[in-house]
Amino acid sequence: MPARWPGSFVVELDGAMSGQILLRRAAEHRRPAAVGKVDLGYLFLPKVWGHGYAAEACAAALDWFDGVLPGEPVVLTTQSANVGSMRLAAKLGFAEVERFQAWDAEQWLGLRPPAT
Q1: Most buried pick, 15, 38, 45, 68, via CB within 10 A?
Q2: Residue 2, in any domain of the structure
Q3: pTM score, two decimals?
């Protein structure tokens, strides 16, 4: 469903699934700044952390997204204590919109402006 789930990708390494990337439109969100925007989500197996696979795969998914839905901003939420995800968000061009409390921890909401 392109309007609601613009993209869902499996990341493969050596013939096995090592991660997943989702691009989904946030019809509802804890933060008003994210409502209606496409949300980037990712999940990788711990054994592949720290090798740059998430950065490479997320960048490729965002490049694909920019070609399919040009002019659309993307949001990303992560715990501010998650140093790896915070570094990845910065590398991908996300800028902080706000921090908020949820799930017993400080959360970070970032926005990647539309590609030009």
Answers
A1: 38
A2: no
A3: 0.88
